[in-house]
Every structure is written in C-alpha cells, then in structure tokens.
C-alpha cells in the first residue's frame, strides 16, 4: 500500500490520557482512535493487525474442529430472563428498547443465544459433540474502561461454545481448546501462562485463564518457580456476577424470602455505613460453616444467600460470633481489616468443602484456602492466613512467586449451568432427555492486539513480530522528489508485492526525519531505505526488532529477504 493512499495519522506527542505504552503507541502510530470512553475505531493499520490475530485464531479453532458462526449482537431480553441473568448481570449489560418497548441487551456474551439456537435443532446425542465459535463485538459497560483496547466497553471477542452428551466428551474438547489456545498465543509470540482460575462468574470446576505476563496486568498470578502450577489469586470482580449468574427463574423467586439481608441491613447490623462495610456472613451448609465476606461498594443489595448450594443463612454474625462459631481468630478476615480489594465469596467452594472464602488482589497478600485445587488447603479455619510469595507451592514442587498478568483468554467447563434453566435437552442413547453438557471458550481479540503491542515495542515505537505486523516491509524513499529514489522505491514496491510480500511504501513528500520517525513508530519488521546510495543501486535494510542494518544491492534484495 502506498502511504499517500492510506490513512495513518501519526502523532508526535503522547496523548495525555493514555496511561500505558500500548495505548499510547497505538494512538501515536495511527492504529486506533478513541470515539468515547472505552470505544475505539480501528484505522487501516490497526484493522490489519486485528485481522492477523483473527486469522491465527480461526486457523487454530478450525483445527480443533470448531466451526465459525455469526450470532446476533442484539439479543431479546426474554433469553436472558430464562437464565435469570437479565436480573443479575448488573450494570455491565447494555440494555435498550425497541420502538414497541420490547427490551433487548447488546451481547456481553452469548451463552443464552447459542443455547437457544441449538435447543431447537440438536435433539439427539448422535448430533453431539458440536463446537461453534464466532468473532464479534461484545458490549460491556465496564465500570472502569481503561488502558485503551485492554479494557473497552465495545471490544472484539472470539467466543466458542461446545455441546456434549457426556462429561468425557467435554473433557476432550476442553483439552483440545487448551491446546488450541496454547498454539494461538505461542504463534502470537506472547509470553503467557495458563493459570487455574476462580470459576467465578460461570461455575464448574475446570477453568483456566490465559495470562500474558505483564507489569500492567490487572490480575495477580501465583505460580511455582519449579513446576507448571499457576493460579489466579483474584477472587474478585467476578464473584458478584458469578453468584448472580447462577440465577435460575426458580432461584429468582427464592430471592425474595425473608432470609435475605440487604447490604443496608448488614451495615446497620454491623454499625457501619454500606460503603465502608465488609461483612461477614455465616452460612451453614451440610453441617459445616461457611464464611462469606462481602464488601459494600458492589451492588450487593441482594447478597444472594440462596446461591450458596445447600446453605442456609444462619444469621449475620459479628466478628465475635464468627470467632466463637468457627473457633478461630478472625480478626484478619473480619469486617474491618480487609484489604480494599476483597469482594465476595465463591459458592463453588461451598459445594466442595468448608472454606473460608475470600480473596485479595493486593500485592503480596492472598487468603489461603479459597478453592481446594487452586489454593492452599488448610485443616481448619485456624490456619487461615494470607499467602505470601515464598510459600511452598501446593503441588509440593518449588515455591510460590507472584506476577501480574493480562487475561487474554478464558476457558470454562460450564456443565449444565445454561442448558438446564433453558431446557436445552437432547435424547441420550437410552432415549432419555438430558441437558447438554457445555463448555465455553473466550479470547479477547482486541485485548490480545493490545497485549502484543505492549510486549513488542521500544523507545521509538513498535517492534511487531512478522506474524502480526500490519505489513512486513516498509520501503522508505528518503526524498521522493529525487527521480532515482522515487523510481527505485516504486520498482522495489512492485517487485516485493509480486513476490507476495506485504509492503508499505512511504511515497509522502515528507522530510527524512519525519519519515524515519514514523517508520520506527509504526514498527514494521523490515525497513528498506532508498537514499543517496540509490544511484549506485545500494539500499539500506534495517531489522526493526534488533536494530541491525545492512547495505544490500538492489538485485540481491529478494534472495536476501528469503
Ligand atoms: P476481565 O476479568 O478482564 O474483566 P472477564 O473475565 O470479565 O475479563 P471473560 O468473560 O472471561 O472476561 O471474557 C473472555 C475474554 O474477553 C477475556 O479473557 C478477555 O480477554 C476479553 N475481555 C473481557 N472483557 C474485556 C474488555 N472489557 N475489553 C477487552 N477485552 C475483554
Ligand atoms: Mg470482566
Ligand atoms: Mg476475569
Ligand atoms: Mg474471564
């Protein structure tokens, strides 16, 4: 492409509101523009990068036997009402009405849509398993959109859903996705780790997040320094949504029971303000006590007692009462001393064993025993304490280190969480109607682009790897008013294109300094400068990532590039 024919509005200055490097550079190098908070336009270069990410994803998804579909972004409220998420998803769900006052949501995720699609079509186990994916804009009204593409309100996601007649079949698909994701992020050149995650918003035991290791990551990963063990210690954000996600219409009804305490009631009980209070609720489940910690700034007007399986709220408890009940010092997990980031609990933990359930996102601290497999089993509440770097790894191999990560992908075994309330069933080989067993698998396509951008850059701009660079070669005739330079530039451009290279030709009448600065900023892997030595048939070739330069004869360019 000729630069005069495309649209690459580079900026000299760093935009004031862009906090992280990827965001700054994507703006400065003319890849994206912000429309409003968390909403972006992709300009030609940005669109090309995005497309390359998509291509890699498509190839690996298809290799894993998932087929592409395209589902509606505009989703009728009725679907979300079936699973109860209409009431529980909260403010992140963008809602709107049509001219007849019918309610809709803009797709934040597509479990309901795809489940409803298949329930009318797949009625026999003979048609299972089936795995479908799409790449589409998602809408989430994030509380804090930030870091450019990393946390947008409209962003591109690859989401896949698989449907099975047995858990074994789901297990297989899950492993295949694990492999596909590993291939995708490896091909993209990312420094990543698959970590065991809180099953948070969706439930089920197995779920992994793919984390790109990065200082600006919002998640903290605990990993072993000498084994593959790695887990997210978040237990944050997701949990409110999570418990809400479990809502089925039946549960929605139950919510209205007098057992339920609102956050205001809790605050009143504890003698604090709703904003300040972190509450300790005690549940009794199968004769075991469960402590639930919740914090005030979430919309937990409806702390969903009912969502804790088999649990009944015995009462709100003061720290003293909890201490008595559980026979342990709970000062550190009581209503007052919790780090700000402590949010809610995990109900899946309740299903497994007694758990002191809490989480923390702060540097260097984490409550242990959050989930048996992913954290640190303890014998009793007396053992509850913060986990530190340097603790032994739960798998017995090595010691725990912490790192920051950007969540680029997330895979889940959903089980029948959606198929059950939505009555999406098939007939098994005995002719019995069973709910589909499901898995879901997401990748933040636009977030991946930002994560790659974050990783591949230096002081002067991007250093894109070949697989994702918007073009492979940048031809820069230094002075296009010079006939020799201009013509040699054009010739080379035509030649390289004919050999299948993706080429950008800087045919602008700009000063050399501007051209070089822009070329560094855009960061294509190979730059070919057509300058003074053009008259002698000599070109300067620069490898962007390493900074190496070579002088090559015009005739040898093709051979050398290969
Ligand atoms: P996060 O914890 O960052 O809010 P999530 O757990 O809510 O992400 P999922 O529901 O697991 O996100 O969605 C699948 C993938 O979509 C995530 O792994 C992430 O890569 C991407 N994603 C989620 N929210 C955003 C967003 N606001 N902007 C860009 N990408 C996002
Ligand atoms: Mg989120
Ligand atoms: Mg997450
Ligand atoms: Mg996630």
From TrEMBL:
Keywords: Aminoacyl-tRNA synthetase, ATP-binding, Cytoplasm, Ligase, Nucleotide-binding, Protein biosynthesis
Entry's EC annotation: 6.1.1.15
Ranges where the Aminoacyl-transfer RNA synthetases class-II family profile domain occurs: 38-465
Gene3D superfamilies according to UniProt: Anticodon-binding domain, Bira Bifunctional Protein, Domain 2
Major localisation: cytoplasm
Comment on protein domains: Consists of three domains: the N-terminal catalytic domain, the editing domain and the C-terminal anticodon-binding domain.
Protein name: Proline--tRNA ligase
Gene name of this polypeptide: proS
